[in-house]
Amino acid sequence: MIGSFLNAVIYRVPRKINIAYPRSHCTSCKKLIYWYENIPILSYIFLRGKCSKCKTPYSVQYPIIEAFVGAVSVLLMPENFDSMGVMYFFLYFSIFCALLCHFIIDIKHQILPDSINIYLALVFLCVSILKYSPTYYISGAAIGFLFPYLVTLAFYYLKGQQGLGGGDIKLFAALGIILGPVGIINNIFLSCFFGAIFSLIMMSIGKMSRESKLAFGPFIIIVASFQIFLPALFRQFSSLWSI
């Protein structure tokens, strides 16, 4: 059900449509989707992936997101179901959901909406207040904002072109709250590294040119996901990049 809601967020937020109203409907013929046509995964199978009225195909993204979010929710389940365990589950599951929306929206529209960045910053702050000192998350947020902003500003004055988008800079600032100063620096350098490698590969096979715009948010989010959800694995990898 959460995955179904995230599909609505992914579709509506970049189009500036209210996420609660109007009711779900076919984007082609505008037919309202009845409750029994909106059951996660099952309705897609029952309808054979098409609108029951106009037969326009629905994107396979819908059941994939629903199944993926359900699987991740199970993987994030705490070992101890005490109050702290349940609280951390909801916080980290919420982070995952917001990052997933960011990931897909940036690929499709090349934007990272302010509303999701603000939401992430607030959840990150809740986690950091519970786990870290004020110096940790304040310095992390400051570095996450100032370093990319100053580099982008310098690039603009030297080249006359915009480097990072405002959404990317805000996402770095939000991530700095939970990753801290060292973690956000690692994220900035690794996401830039992987973004550059991806661009070079795509240009070498003729899928991109130097003038092509690249959705950079997914690279930030992939690195951040390892840092947040698989910290032990990330530490092993980052030993090669230690600061």
Characterise the protein shown here.
With 243 residues, this protein is mainly alpha-helical. It folds into 2 domains: 1-68, no CATH class; 76-241, no CATH class. It has 9 helices and no strands. Helix 1 runs parallel beside helix 4 (83-109), helix 4 packs antiparallel against helix 8 and helix 8 (217-229) crosses helix 9. The longest helix has 39 residues, at 166-204. The protein starts with a helix and ends in a 5-residue tail after the last helix.
Alpha carbon gyration radius: 20 Å
**What's the domain count?**
2
Query: What fraction strand?
Result: under 5%
Uncertain runs with pLDDT below 50, 5 residues or more? none
Number of helices: 9
Q: Calculate the mean pLDDT score and round it.
A: 92
Overall 3D form:
globular
Question: In a few lines, what is going on in this structure?
Answer:
The chain is an all-alpha fold. The protein has nine helices and no strands. Helix 1 (2-12) crosses helix 3 (61-75) and helix 5 (114-131) packs across helix 7 (166-204).
Q: Which descriptors would you attach to this protein?
A:
2 domains, mainly alpha, 243 residues, single chain
Topology:
Layout: H1 2-12, H2 42-46, H3 61-75, H4 83-109, H5 114-131, H6 134-159, H7 166-204, H8 217-229, H9 231-238
Helix pairs in contact: 1-3, 1-4, 4-5, 4-8, 5-7, 6-7, 7-8, 8-9
